[in-house]
Design goal:
alpha+beta, about 35% strand
Length: about 160
């Protein structure tokens, strides 16, 4: 489905307001964009009662929302920069969990250049493209707690 980013400024404050109105489940579980550059996005979420699982750690789906945002906001930013209508859709996702997620968890995606190149290829060829990007979650000690891979399908519209 085409993403309407018209008039959207890509700042953490604006994106977090967007979450409140368009993705309230992410907003109310504490998912927040902390920083965004052309090449990287950092999303944080703090373990608390509203996002816990029965095992005293963060529910996997909350980690998924935070990690997907770190990849998806880079895709949205590059689509906006292209000044083209481009549809974006997650077509596959894989998650690996290596440690209990408690405290403040930081999800990082550093693949803006790859996303930019894939969007450019979609525009140039007129064909749909797929890209797999990674977001890794780290606890306050810098230890990886989870890693997600998202396959995005991107297609330029005429």
């Amino acid at each position: 489905m085409p993403v309407n980013t018209e008039k959207m400024k890509f700042t953490p404050r604006k994106v977090n307001a967007f979450l409140l109105f368009k993705l309230p489940s992410a907003f109310f579980t504490g998912v927040r964009l902390k920083s965004l550059t052309n090449n990287a996005a950092v999303v944080k979420v703090t373990y608390r009662w509203v996002n816990q699982n029965p095992f005293k750690s963060m529910f996997w789906a909350v980690q998924g929302m935070a990690s997907e945002l770190s990849t998806g906001i880079l895709v949205m930013k590059e689509i906006d920069a292209s000044n083209r209508k481009i549809s974006m859709l997650v077509t596959n996702m894989n998650g690996t969990f290596t440690k209990k997620a408690t405290g403040k968890i930081r999800f990082e995606c550093n693949e803006g250049e790859l996303i930019r190149a894939t969007i450019q290829k979609a525009i140039e060829t007129g064909e749909g493209q797929t890209i797999t990007v990674t977001s890794e979650g780290f606890n306050e000690e810098g230890i990886s707690v989870s890693k997600f891979e998202y396959e995005w399908s991107l297609k330029a519209k005429n």
